[in-house]
Specification:
It contains 18 helices and 22 strands. It is of the alpha/beta class and 589 residues long. It folds into three domains: 2-138, Beta-Lactamase (2-Layer Sandwich), CATH 3.30.450; 156-313, Reverse transcriptase/Diguanylate cyclase domain (Alpha-Beta Plaits, 2-Layer Sandwich); 328-576, EAL domain (TIM Barrel). The strands form four sheets. It has an eight-stranded mixed beta barrel with strand order 13-14-16-17-18-19-20-21, surrounded by four helices. Strands 2-1-5-4-3 form a five-stranded antiparallel β-sheet. Strand 20, helix 17 and strand 21 (558-560) form a beta-alpha-beta unit. Helix 6 crosses helix 7 (246-259). The chain starts with a helix and ends in an 8-residue tail after the last helix. The mean pLDDT is 86.
């Protein structure tokens, strides 16, 4: 009896396990399928039927190859009949993601895993477990798409759709690092008339020009080249495999000519004008930075020489570049070390014949090249970003000279210094000026700040900012004169709006006063209007007595120029004034 009892218990245990297995499979959330090795379905749970939107009766005895795949992926009957699992084939290991289709035509992503087991008869069966992962796949695809978009945004310009500076730097670094590479060319393209287009047609017109430019360049470059937008109106083209330097010149000329062809935007004709600097790597030791510097210098020369042209970096330009680089370094050292010199040019009142002021002028006395005129180094100062620093030095020199004048008894002689936009934008400019005049016990009305007329024009933000600074200077008791007046954009119409105390007529108008009737009319009108507004009128660049007399007859207040005196160093100034004081000036009233 005992062996029989054990057997019964064993059978009951096996039956119980089978029941548990059946219950688990029937109620599992995943679809479960039992197949023979020919993929015929022997058993399926309800979850499988639900996933496929089929009745269980339509599943048993059939292969999923008959109904589960999209129509264009469904095998032929012969292929289905010939199908057979190979349990030893490793391709059935792991998970497989398959796109399936339901009877209503809707598609879904099915995650499938297959394992092989032997039944009680010793025959092998395939156990298929599947899960609808469509939502998960959709989310992953969306995240992947977002990732692609973010990657694209990080490497492409949002306005034009072409690569940006980061992509350009990565590309040129890769090309120049390639072993046994050919020469790499670089074009630096700057649009000459973008500001004018923005001013005339607004930013939407400017954007249209940028997109048009990008499209034109993309249409002309080779497959191996890359175009990128690297600044507001700046583009670069990297040209690998440049075997002939003339290629860049020919391509650049073609590009300029194509860009110059007018295109239509909102019913208007727009035209792109550009300058191009070209450079080619000269050895395998060149770096991307070397090529960038050379193309940038070539672009500078193109714009400096009149714009709308191509300049290629060659031997002559290399020597010029080396000279300018050395000059920039020497100039920066001179400014940082306080080694610039400041000269002073007297100003004469035409009503009294007395010296009433001095303009502070910067000079650079080079250790080996001697005196270098401002026109030969001021552009370099601006490019170095040191204009504001130099102007602060000029301010300090002017105030120091005013203290010397006061100590010598010339309290009524004022001093003037130039203030660039960079100095006007300095947050501590006015506070520093006020502190310095108070410390030196200087009368604020004896200090005049000269600002270029063109400084006060441009975009609305800069206009408002500079107008506010001028107002604050005037409110603090300082004089403010518009320098180089008469050559700017608006001139007379803005005199009443700006809180200035005087104007300084541009030397170009003054030098042609005696032989150009147009200049005479302009100068006369400036003087008349300024006098009506109660402004001091100074004429600079007076070279002879006839010009001085003509200005006096027109009602000009003050003159300055070589006829009176050349700019002089501080040590000569007091003696010169004393000598003038002992003699009657020919224009003394």
């Amino acid at each position: 009896m005992e062996p029989c009892t054990q057997k019964n218990r064993y059978l009951k245990s096996r039956a119980a396990q089978a029941d548990y297995f059946r219950l688990a499979c029937e109620n599992a959330a995943d679809g479960i399928l039992v197949q023979d090795l020919n993929a015929k379905t022997l058993w399926a749970n309800q979850a499988y039927a639900d996933i496929h939107n089929l009745d269980l009766n339509n599943i048993i005895g059939r292969s999923p190859l008959e109904y589960a795949l999209p129509k264009d992926k469904t095998p032929t009957k012969e292929e289905i009949q010939d199908f057979r699992y190979d349990p030893d084939d490793p391709k059935w290991n792991g998970f497989e993601l398959v796109k399936n289709q339901r009877p209503d035509g809707s598609e879904f992503w099915n995650q499938i895993s297959i394992s092989f087991v032997k039944n009680s008869d010793g025959a092998e069966n395939a156990i298929v477990v599947c899960r609808d992962v469509t939502e998960q796949v959709t989310q992953e695809n969306q995240l992947r798409k977002i990732g692609y978009e973010l990657e694209h945004q990080a490497s492409h310009d949002s306005l034009t759709g072409i690569p940006n500076r980061a992509a350009f730097l990565a590309f040129i670094s890769q090309e120049m690092a390639a072993p046994d590479r050919a020469a790499v060319g670089l074009l630096h393209i700057d649009l000459d008339n973008s500001k004018a287009i923005n001013d005339t047609h607004g930013h939407s017109g400017g954007d249209a020009v940028l997109r048009h430019t990008a499209n034109i360049i993309q249409g002309l470059i080779r497959d191996s080249d890359l175009v990128a937008r690297v600044g507001g109106d700046e583009f670069v083209v990297v040209c690998p495999l440049v075997n002939n330097p003339d290629f860049l010149t020919r391509f650049s000329s073609q590009l300029l000519n194509t860009l110059a062809e007018p295109f239509e935007w909102n019913g208007r004709k727009l035209q792109v004008e550009a300058s191009i600097g070209a450079a080619v790597s000269q050895s395998r030791y060149d770096t991307p930075e070397d090529l960038l510097v050379r193309s940038d210098f070539a672009l500078y020369e193109a714009k400096h020489n009149g714009r709308y042209q191509v300049v290629t970096y060659d031997t002559a330009l290399r020597d010029q570049h080396a000279f300018q680089t050395r000059r920039e370094r020497e100039l920066a050292d001179a400014i940082d070390g306080g080694n610039l010199d400041f000269f002073f040019q007297p100003q004469l009142c035409l009503r009294t014949g007395e010296i009433i002021g001095m303009e502070t002028l910067v000079r650079w006395i080079h250790p080996s090249d001697g005196l270098i005129e401002p026109n030969d180094f001021l552009t370099l100062v601006r490019d170095l970003g040191l204009l504001g620093v130099m102007d602060l030095s000029a301010m300090d020199a002017a105030l120091a000279e005013k203290r010397r004048l006061n100590l010598a008894g010339f309290d009524d002689i004022g001093v003037a210094f130039n203030a660039s936009p960079e100095l006007l934008a300095h947050p501590d400019f006015i506070n520093r000026l006020v502190w310095a005049v108070e410390a030196g016990e200087i009368d604020r009305s004896q200090i005049t700040i000269e600002v270029l007329e063109t400084t006060n024009f441009g975009d609305a933000t800069h206009k408002a900012s500079h107008a506010a600074i001028i107002h604050d200077l005037r409110h603090a008791g300082f004089g403010v004169h518009l320098d180089d007046f008469g050559i700017g954009f608006a001139g007379l119409s803005h005199l009443a709006a700006l809180d200035v105390s005087g104007v300084k007529i541009d030397r170009g108008l003054v030098s042609n006063l005696l032989n150009d009737t147009t200049c005479q009319k302009i100068v006369r009108k400036i003087i008349e209007l300024s006098n009506d507004l109660g402004l001091i009128v100074t004429a600079e660049g007076v070279e002879d007595a006839l010009t001085a007399t003509a200005l006096q007859e027109m009602g000009c207040s003050v003159i300055q120029g070589y006829w009176l005196s050349k700019p002089m160093p501080s040590e000569n100034l007091i003696g010169w004034i004393e000598n003038q004081d002992r003699h009657t000036h020919p224009l003394r009233a």
